[in-house]
Amino acid sequence: MFDSLLQEALGLLLSWRFAIAALATVIAGLMRGYSGFGTAILLAPVYSTLWSPRVGVPVVLLMELFVSAYLLPRSFGEANKKLILPICGAAVLMLPLGSIILLQADGGTLRRAIGIFVLLFGLLMMSGWRYHGTRPLPLNLAVGVTAGLLKGATGMSGPPVILYLLAGKEEARQHRANLILFFGVLGVASIVPPLWGGLIGVSTLVMTAVMLPVMLFSVPMGARLFHVIPQRWYRRFALILLIATGGFALLG
């Protein structure tokens, strides 16, 4: 069995898909370390195109789990837990329903849906639109429900939460901590449905083992860049990447 796992890992490392996946993983790791988000939004479209959603999405979920373990402890004290924990709770409850979509939906259709969603999110961010209303508990729960469904089905919970949280008046450090706490809680919970549904098999574990060191190398670098690179530079670069990855999944 060890020999077959080694051959599968070597086959992945020597394929052209590895080069594309590794580049996307480095960029996603830098984004996640810098801003607190970006892993799934970038990697779900790329991995789903390279390996199909039923393989790519579980790989993203497993990698999110390890990245969250690195970032979560420091950010827990800085986050607005009164705001974030209800969103997390609603999202966790909706994860199984989203996972049913992942299990049942056609792979090509789901990949294109992921691409369209990421593309629209990038364009919406580029337009400068923000939600400027209040953040009452019912609305927090509604955002959490939407995020949980998306996380289970596509591996991405970020877009609705990011747009919603950016409306707040918190400083950049607390925005980042809020996002890290949300993604950390959801990262742990999101592993259970695909594991229960049999989506995390040997191939998924091999791909995760190959890509995870690339991610874990990149995240600390991104965290250091948070104190160096002006946020306006990062935002422009991130928007370009979102539109590019959405188009890659849509047309790939």
From TrEMBL:
It is a multi-pass membrane protein. It comes from Pseudoroseomonas ludipueritiae. Keywords: Cell membrane, Membrane, Transmembrane, Transmembrane helix, Transport. The chain crosses the membrane at residues 20-43, 55-72, 84-103, 110-129, 141-167, 179-196, 202-221, 233-251. It is found in: Cell membrane. PANTHER family: MEMBRANE TRANSPORTER PROTEIN, TRANSMEMBRANE PROTEIN YFCA. It comes from the Bacteria. The lineage of its organism: Bacteria, Pseudomonadati, Pseudomonadota, Alphaproteobacteria, Acetobacterales. Its main location: membrane. This is Probable membrane transporter protein. Belongs to the 4-toluene sulfonate uptake permease (TSUP) (TC 2.A.102) family.
